[in-house]
Amino acid sequence: MTRPEKHSLTLRGHRTSVSLEPEFWVAFRALARAQGKTLNGLAIEIDEARGDVGLASAVRVAVLKAAQSS
Predict the structure, then answer these.
(1) Single pTM value for the model
(2) What is the dihedral of CA 40, 34, 49, 26, to 10 degrees?
(3) Taking a C-beta distance cutoff of 8 angstroms, is the pair 59, 23 a contact?
(4) What confidence score (pLDDT) does residue 57 get?
């Protein structure tokens, strides 16, 4: 198992750090590309829909749902 890696994202002009395992970063980038979005753009959409869960958890769930639907 690999350790999470912290990367910075910009959401509506504000920088934030998100820690994900490298495999999730790869899948998150691939999902953004497949949807024709930037990584920050997709993160904004996930952030707006996440409710009370953390951003990293919301990203993991979005990546998992996308993988399950393909």
Answers:
(1) 0.93
(2) -60
(3) no
(4) 97
Decide if 46 contacts 28 (C-beta within 8 A): no
* DSSP letter, residue 2: P
Query: Of 16, 42, 44, nearest to 31 (Cα)?
Result: 42
Q: Tokens in use for 56? A: 């990293």
Residue with tokens 């009370």: 52
Q: What is the pLDDT of residues 18-46, one digit of tens each?
A: 999 999 999 999 999 999 999 999 999 99
- Residue 63 CA from chain centroid, whole number: 7
29 sits in which H/E element: helix 22-34
Domain ranges of the chain: 5-69
- For the chain, the residue count is 70
